[in-house]
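BUG: 3D viewer hangs when loading the predicted structure for this chain

Environment: internal workstation, default settings.
Expected: structure renders.
Actual: progress bar stalls at 90%.

Input used:
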Amino acid sequence: HLAPTMEEFAVVERLSPRVVRVMGRNPSAYTLQGTNTYLVGTGSRRLLIDTGDGRAEYIPGLAEACAGETGTNPCAYTRVEGRSFVFVCNLIHVQRGHRACSCRELATSLLLTQGAPVTIDKIVITHWHADHVGGVDSVCEHIRAAGCDPACVMKIPSAEHDKASQPLHSLVDGDVITTEGATLRVLHTPGHAADHCALLLEEENAIFSGDCVLGAGTSVFENLREYMASLRRLLALSPAIIYPGHGPVVADPRDRLQTYISHRDARERQVLEALTAAPEGLTVAQVVGTVYPGLADALVRGATGNVEHHLQKLLGDGAVSESQGVWRRLQPRM
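Structure tokens produced before the viewer hung:
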């Protein structure tokens, strides 16, 4: 269940002329409203970014998204049985006398007048975590069951974690993936995960950030030094908008990225201050209790991982030492 202050998203929602968000239907404290998956492009064949965690509820939403898309210009106009359907960018205005048509009625009418629904021929996975890659097999099976050609599944490889039964096409930094109406450039952004990638949508100067940047709160990471470099790389691109792996669209990406960077710098200072105040040393759990006072139990695991990674970075910087699980601050060399 969502927290009372967390906005609930529609299962399927158009975000721009070439981007439709389909919710993974897996809300939690870590995934927020759930995994955001994205149907990208404007033609009869589209690209899907991420696949949720594989739960059965996701496929009907994805099928609805495909059925509601007809490969037409999103700024199109048509008239069906006396009804007017006007598409203006990402806003859909439907008129039928004084009564609004339902989304299902709209999709059905468009299917009758504008051809078959779109199909998915490419799937890009941002990283190996189960809430992004877990639905690959079920999505591919859905595509096969619809009688369509198999989709090409792409990601930056992870020898340790790649377990999907579908063949994976390896991506590398700088690869360009195209589909009608959309050009995506692969950005290797390790830190949250070693195989993590973001995708730059060139037509919108928009970034699909995966879990490098979230729509609310901050992300966890496995390598702080790499994560900070990835954040700075995204900041240098000056994106106009960020479509995150979880949470709402980020409309102020430069401010959000700078906030992430400043937050991690501030957290590092807090860890150092906690160790300075305890010359006898602290365990990781004690540092977590000092830096994250009053943290909800459900979030302790993630906070512990973050503190461990901060400590490992500081160890590499020569700022701290560790012995038998006890961490101490070292005096700066003069």
